Amino acid sequence: MTIPTTVSVAPADEYPADGHTVPEAMPVKAWRPPMGWNSWDSYGTTITEQEVLDNARFMAEHLKDAGWDTLVIDAGWFDPNAHAHGYSDGTPLCIDAYGRQIPDEQRFPSAADGKGFGPLADAVHRLGLKLGVHVMRGIPRQAVHENLPVKGTALHAQDVADTEHTCAWNHDNYGLKRGDAGAQAWYDAQVDLLASWGLDFLKVDDMQTPFFPEEIEAYHHAIERAEAAYGRPITLSLSPGGWVASTHVDFLRGVSQMWRISDDLWDRWEDIYQQFPRLARWAPMQRTGHWADADMLPLGHIGLRAERGDDRQSKLTCDEQKTLLTLWSMGRSPLMVGGDLPTSNADTIALLANPALREVTAGSSGNREIVWERLFAEWNVEESFIGELIAWTADAADWADGTTSAHARGHYGAIFWTGSEPYELKGNIQLQSFVGIDQRNADWTLTDLWADAPQSPDGIRSDVRIEGEGEDRVIRGTIPAHGCLWFALD
């Protein structure tokens, strides 16, 4: 079903003046899985204004036409003592008179004189892109120790803080009293400030592991109020994702646009491998505007000043990178790349520029895993295990914004191989597995969705084709180690 891409809002003159353009109508939030860039994998807590602008300009020039349109400043933008490889526990933070985080002016000079991220958001918007930031659940400990007032109320920070519910891995904040009106007032004030800067995206961390429904709902209400005040939609992304149960899906759809389904993912094959069952579980639950998120893509130039690892191009092979991008797309996960774009290698940028990424995430339905088989060099001899053969399918669909599918009445397919050596398909995967028994005798053609992409330097090309006649047709091809075949069927 096609949904409208805008909804009516009140006239612009009913909103307070904030120096930002108010859209004529508010777009539907995250009608397709967001595609963007996040600073964490490259810069950890240390990102600077110039580095954000450099990535924004590169995205606008090289990747915007392929669907990439959002930049997110991750943790620590309010920390004047930020450093690589971790957080600055106990350091004084940059906060305002109400305890709300404000940018470190040494790293973000345009934030001076109380302008916050307003000037940077304006610069990003002029490029046709969106800007977001990361914040933690709760209230800064510094605000509680100083007992600063909660804006718009007679309360102070010590009245609303819950000092028993703290984050296990970041010590910036205390929790808030769950279900308390004062806690709602704190979130209202914080989000109002963020919205006044013109931000489009909020990544709110320490919300899901453990799962805090009262605080998530409070943040959702704060965003609703800020959207009504400023007329700009704000996408809410929840983190982290360890132990998030799929039984929460209805609640999550009601309060957010993105929610993580794993802990942090890095440039290791084992991290990608663990996402296969997670995405298989969540993919059938993806809905327009509400997306299970398999985490950031550790691709390109990462580790410059990151939390984990040193300066490097991603350690994932070219084929592992294709597998990651294909699996995320077939699972309709948001795509948030972590590598510093201007200094990432050309092959990575070419992979990210593949139009199939947006085509499949925006225009597919019925996405699901259909095969998972463990293969052995010798029948039923456990010691001879060589890898798993995994297949996914999806139906091509018109996009929610009304764009017609490039493969109307067609299908998308992906075949993954987890083994450490190339694998030649031997007729294991029948064409009818993707097109259905009723359509198996139709005249199907296959398009390789990675046909124009960089190839692995080992010389193994992921050749994919249809072979056979009529109902006996199969998908054949060579799958590189940890690689995949990705195709459309018309």
Low-confidence residue ranges = 1-24
Multimerization state: single chain
Strand order of the largest sheet: 12-11-10-9-5-4-3-15
- What best-fitting shape do the alpha-carbon axes yield? elongated
Structural classification: alpha/beta
The averaged pLDDT comes out at 93
Describe the structure concisely.
25% of the residues lie in helices and 21% in strands. By secondary structure, it is α/β, with parallel strands linked by helices.
Describe the structure in your own words.
With 490 residues, this protein is α/β, with parallel strands linked by helices. It is 25% helix and 21% strand. It is built from 13 helices and 23 strands. It has helices at residues 40-43, 49-62, 118-126, 141-145, 157-160, 181-196, 213-230, 249-255, 269-282, 318-330, 346-352, 356-362, 432-435; strands spanning 6-7, 26-27, 35-38, 70-73, 130-136, 139-140, 161-162, 173-176, 201-205, 235-238, 258-260, 291-293, 301-302, 312-313, 335-337, 364-376, 385-396, 411-417, 423-424, 446-448, 464-467, 474-479, 484-489. The protein has an eight-stranded parallel β-sheet with strand order 12-11-10-9-5-4-3-15. It has a five-stranded antiparallel β-sheet with strand order 16-17-18-23-20. A three-stranded antiparallel β-sheet has the order 6-8-7. Helix 3 links the parallel strand 4 (70-73) and strand 5. Helix 6 (181-196) packs across helix 7 (213-230) and helix 10 (318-330) runs parallel beside helix 12 (356-362). The longest helix is centred in the middle third of the chain and has 18 residues, at 213-230. The protein is elongated, with a radius of gyration of 23 Å.
